[in-house]
Specification:
The chain has 157 residues and is α/β, with parallel strands linked by helices. It is built from three helices and seven strands. The strands form two sheets. The chain has a five-stranded mixed sheet with strand order 4-3-2-5-6, covered by helices on one side. The longest helix is centred in the first third of the chain and has 17 residues. The C terminus is likely disordered.
């Protein structure tokens, strides 16, 4: 490709030079690719799906107590890896100064973790004196039925 040089008499070139814009966009792309993995706030857990999960925005707060179970025999309290036997003491230490209505413990468990493991953690939290426990799930993706209804549920009888 040649470059437009004009007539040599000092006339203006009316072509748009996009090279600086492309350079800036590539730098921004690289920055976002590097920063995005660092923005992850907690342990990666493949949550089970549910048709009707309750939306609770308190789980996203920095002050919320979240126990993560990504696999059997792996336990996290927030981002910190903990042993199973240490969970009650650490939860008590975090929630001791909070009012009763704010003493909620959320449990995130991968869908491949054994049911008994989750029950064991729930029992340990209850034995520590906390009854408000939330089990976290994600909303199930709806299967599209096509047509004009767009996958609407069938009418109830």
């Amino acid at each position: 490709m040649g470059m437009a040089t004009g007539s040599g008499e000092g006339s203006l070139v009316s072509d748009i030079n996009v090279t600086p814009m492309v350079d800036v966009m590539l730098v921004l792309l690289i920055i976002f690719m590097i920063i995005t993995p660092m923005l992850q706030s907690d342990v990666t857990i493949n949550l089970p799906e549910s048709k009707y999960p309750d939306l609770d925005m308190n789980i996203n707060k920095e002050t919320s107590v979240v126990i993560g179970i990504p696999a059997d025999n792996q336990y996290f309290l927030g981002r910190e890896k903990v042993q199973l036997n240490d969970i009650p003491d650490k939860v008590k230490a975090i929630l001791k100064d909070r009012p009763a209505q704010d003493q909620v413990v959320y449990i995130k468990s991968s869908d491949n973790v054994k049911y008994g493991t989750v029950v064991q953690v729930v029992d340990m939290v209850r034995d520590a004196g906390f009854e408000r426990i939330g089990l976290v799930s994600k909303k199930e993706k709806e299967q599209g039925g096509g047509g004009a209804e767009g996958g609407a549920p069938p009418p109830s009888k």
